[in-house]
Design goal:
By secondary structure, the chain is α+β, with helices and mostly antiparallel strands. It has 17 helices and 10 strands. It has helices at 19-23, 26-35, 52-60, 97-105, 111-115, 118-132, 141-146, 148-158, 165-176, 185-212, 218-227, 235-248, 251-266, 271-275, 279-292, 324-327, 362-379; strands spanning 38-41, 46-49, 65-66, 138-140, 298-303, 307-309, 312-314, 319-323, 380-385, 405-410. Helix 13 packs across helix 15 (279-292). Bound molecules: protoporphyrin IX containing FE. Protoporphyrin IX containing FE binds next to helix 12, helix 13 and helix 17.
Length: 411
């Protein structure tokens, strides 16, 4: 396992390696839930868990299933400068340190805090769409809205220039990328390390700047926690936090918005018409997108002790991939799980995970999806997917498409 792949998530199971399979992995998941719900894959040297109850158990039981990749028997200590920063974040720490790290920025992601910013977020989405929607009746949902909108929002919250967003895109994409056959493992690891060093350098400068000149942004909050009385964060943790916040909310939310347009366009009837002007219905439909085409399909853990699941013995130090995307299609939990039902209720999906590491940015992602999609619906009707083959996001755990060209009529 490469140290540039601390989660062991970058290897794609053989069954999902083709473009078609990764665009629609759901039949494979269904087969696995029935025939091998907990299985060991010797190629990737990891366990895979596919059923809803089992996925939830893995996510919920922090004592037995750690997020810390350093618990894995095949973990390789990072060597390069900057390479281990992502390990110093809440995502890879178990309680109690996890809770202290999350506590530094938690307040900023609460729905009531974000509500104050909604009008501004709406302006941002509106500006992007004013530029993109026109008489030619074409836009690329990813390029014109789903990518630039979340990255601008998180850049503003952090306090970094949104004009650097092309750079952020390269960073985010590289960090979630799957290893491919076209590149040697060493070259892939080098590229990953290079990107982490670039990010560290970028944020070091930003941190220095905020120390001199604090503002009303997350960077200043992080800097205060690093240097303030009690010094709650080390320098590495402060840098890791910046990197995590920039990366975690970008490609995920991009895919939520693009997957939503894909789901609405594929649905029976004119869902765009039904959802226009109805925030409650839109909010519920976004939850169903999170279940039906989950932007994050998989998350990883390491067993801290020997544990038996469905008759299989997982040994301490083994890695486990919890397939959220499969849990979200489990018929044992969801009636007609393979049907997209925008008004599904209840809808206890695990698209944002569950338990201690439940997504910090969930309220932000939900708000961005609601605002971005409602602004789009206000401007366009009769939306159809363009007749071009979809390309899946190049990642083994992030699920969506590289671009989503659509045709529409202007309203
Ligand atoms: C954690 C999904 C958006 C920040 C997670 C986890 C999932 C997830 C599944 C759990 C990880 C685990 O259990 O190991 C998503 C999806 C998003 C999204 C589907 C968009 C649709 C965001 C945004 C941000 C964010 C906008 C912030 C800017 C985080 C952080 C964690 C996290 C910091 C770690 C939380 C912890 O360890 O306590 N996310 N996320 N996410 N997410 Fe998100």
């Amino acid at each position: 396992m490469s140290s540039a792949d601390p989660q062991g998530l970058q290897a794609v199971p053989e069954e999902l390696q083709s473009r078609e399979a990764w665009l629609e992995p759901f039949d494979w998941y269904a087969r696995m839930r029935e025939t091998a719900p907990v299985r060991y894959d010797p190629e990737r040297r990891t366990w895979d868990v596919f059923r809803y109850d089992d996925v939830k158990r893995v996510l919920d039981d922090d004592d037995v299933f750690s997020v810390d990749p350093r618990e894995a028997t095949d973990f390789v200590e990072p060597e390069g400068p900057g390479e281990g920063l992502i390990l110093d974040t809440m995502l890879f720490e178990d309680p109690p340190r996890h809770d202290e790290l999350r506590g530094v920025v938690d307040e900023w992601f609460q729905p009531r805090t974000l509500a104050d910013r909604e009008p501004h977020f709406r302006e941002l989405a509106s500006e992007l769409l004013d530029d993109a929607v026109g008489a030619d009746g074409r836009l690329d949902v990813v390029e014109d809205l789903a990518y630039p909108f979340p990255v601008t929002v998180i850049a503003e919250l952090l306090g970094v220039p949104a004009s650097d967003r092309d750079r952020f895109k390269t960073w985010s994409n590289t960090l979630v990328e799957a290893a491919s056959d076209d590149e040697s493992a060493d070259a892939f690891a080098d590229r990953q390390q290079q990107i982490q060093m670039e990010m560290a350098q970028y944020f070091l400068e930003m941190i220095e700047d905020r120390r001199e000149d604090p503002r009303d942004d997350l960077l200043s909050v992080i800097v205060t926690a690093e240097s303030g009385a009690g010094g709650r964060l080390s320098r590495e943790e402060a840098l890791g936090m910046c990197i995590l916040l920039l990366v975690a909310g970008n490609i995920t939310t991009t895919n939520l918005i693009a997957n939503a347009v894909r789901c609405f366009a594929e649905a029976d009837g004119d869902l765009f018409d039904e959802l226009r002007g109805d925030d409650r219905a839109l909010t519920s439909a976004v939850e169903e997108v999170l279940r039906y085409r989950s932007p994050v399909q998989a998350m990883s853990r390491v067993a801290t002790e020997d544990v038996t699941m469905r008759g299989e013995t997982i040994e301490a130090g083994d890695r486990i991939i919890a397939w959220l995307g499969s849990a979200n299609r489990d018929e044992r939990q969801f009636e007609a799980a393979d049907a997209f039902r925008p008004d599904r209720s209840p809808n206890q999906h695990v698209g944002f995970g569950h338990g201690t590491h439940y997504c910090l940015g969930a309220p932000l992602a939900r708000l961005e999806a609601k605002v971005g999609l409602s602004e789009l619906l206000d401007r366009v009707e009769n939306v159809r997917l363009a007749d071009v083959p979809l390309q899946p996001t190049r990642s083994s755990f992030i699920y969506g498409v590289e671009s989503l060209p659509v045709r529409y009529d202007e309203r």
